[in-house]
Design goal:
This protein is α/β, with parallel strands linked by helices and 399 residues long. 45% of the residues lie in helices and 16% in strands. It is built from 17 helices and 14 strands. A five-stranded mixed β-sheet has the order 2-1-3-13-6. The longest helix is centred in the N-terminal third of the chain and has 16 residues, at 2-17. Keywords: Coiled coil, Signal, Transport.
């Protein structure tokens, strides 16, 4: 009997000491997968309370579809790595847990806007872990041959595109995807949503931005690509069919680590007017409603670990995501000195901001992209197609 009591007490003690498992579905493919999973191994080895159990579930779209299926059938994880524009829908559908009670006080050196990507209705539902900004990629050899400097304004972009365009190549790539368009709108001081976060496609700055792109296409100095042709945009640039284009900074290591490209890659900050912003895109950690309190606490503990300056610096160097905290900057000095282009591109962290959090975004973004394609590929009137997209977006707003 005494042996049995000792055995039961020992078993109970062992179970109490066992770390809480936190199944984690993440969407970080190369080059982010290995550094993320290495960070998880370090976190698991540093403490005994929690064990993050990672599973790669594809890119943001694939991961989102798998999550929706798991929520319907059961088997959803405790922790999910969501694209930040998907967070609003997760909150509206009561899938995400608020995390404020577990966060406590946070360091005061987070860059403005970064933590806001995880907040809705005044509460924190997402813990941002991999946020990027856009950059302007350009063919440095072609710029040098024409005596051009990196564009500082959008007028400079037009001038450069005019001088670079030939019969065989265009100066600039224009894409009909919503992200590329938002880059232009925000950099010019505008927004595609109003102060309540709802679609605002017909406001003057949005209309002017589309007319600006349309004018470049009409002048035959820009190559227009729709969504179906998006994969050709990078190929056009690498094959010197175009000489400039806006894309996420995270594309940079993927370009330079592939087969050698036939020119020097120029990387510049996105041109901005005074007060203009650049949109934050990327991923956030979301604790799902089915997770226990201990799993939620463990998820927050892991995020805090990831936000330690040394871990931020390693993550930035591997992925080119933005440093979330100012305290990480001294640890990145060697990274910037190694390649001065990095300092210019990463300096945009000071001007980065949230671009949308509307739960209905997953529905209405296609209305805007359809309008962009009709204007940029079909030469339709910019104001008219944006007003039509606005009416369609209003019809699906449930808030």
């Amino acid at each position: 009997m005494r042996f049995l009591i000792v055995l039961l007490v020992g078993l109970g003690w062992a179970l109490a000491q066992r770390p809480i498992d936190i199944p984690f579905w993440h969407t970080a493919g190369p080059p982010g997968q290995e550094p993320l999973e290495e960070m998880i191994r370090e976190f698991n080895g540093r403490q005994r309370d929690y064990r993050i159990v990672p599973s790669f579930v594809g890119d943001y779209r694939e991961g989102g579809l798998k999550l929706l299926a798991a929520l319907r059938s059961g088997g959803a994880p405790a922790l999910f790595h969501a694209e930040i524009s998907f967070l609003g829908r997760m909150v509206q559908d009561n899938v995400a847990q608020p995390l404020d009670e577990y966060l406590g006080s946070l360091p005061g050196d987070f860059y403005p806007g970064f933590l806001e990507t995880g907040k809705l209705r005044g509460r924190t539902y997402g813990l941002p872990i991999g946020l990027s900004v856009p950059v302007l990629f350009y063919n440095a050899d072609q710029f040098s041959s024409k005596g051009l400097s990196a564009p500082r304004t959008w007028d400079d972009v037009v001038t450069a595109a005019q001088r670079l365009t030939t019969r065989a190549a265009k100066g600039y790539t224009v894409s009909s995807d919503i992200y590329s368009f938002v880059v232009l709108v925000m950099s010019r001081g505008g927004s595609i949503v109003n102060s309540q976060g709802r679609p605002d496609f017909a406001n003057p700055k949005v209309v002017e931005s589309l007319e600006f792109l349309q004018d470049m296409v009409r002048k035959n100095i820009a190559q227009s690509r729709n969504i179906a042709e998006a994969q050709f945009s990078v190929a056009d640039f690498l094959r010197t069919k175009t000489f400039m284009g806006v894309a996420p900074i995270t594309l940079w290591p993927l370009i330079e680590n592939r087969a050698p490209i036939p020119f020097r890659l120029g990387v510049a900050a996105v041109p901005r007017v005074e007060g203009g912003k650049v949109p934050l895109a990327g991923g956030t950690l979301v604790v799902l409603r089915g997770a226990s309190e201990q799993q939620a606490r463990g998820a927050v503990a892991f995020w805090r670990f990831a936000m330690e300056p040394a871990n931020i610096a390693k993550w930035v160097k591997a992925t080119y995501y933005m440093p979330m905290r100012r305290a990480a900057q001294p640890l990145l000095e060697d990274f910037y000195k190694e390649d001065p282009r990095r300092r210019v591109a990463f300096s945009q962290v000071e001007h980065a901001d949230v671009w949308l959090q509307d739960p209905e975004f997953t529905i209405w973004y296609s209305f805007l992209e359809d309008a962009l394609e009709r204007a940029l590929k079909g030469n339709a009137n910019a104001r008219q197609v944006l007003e039509e997209a606005q009416r369609r977006a209003n019809s699906v707003e449930r808030r």
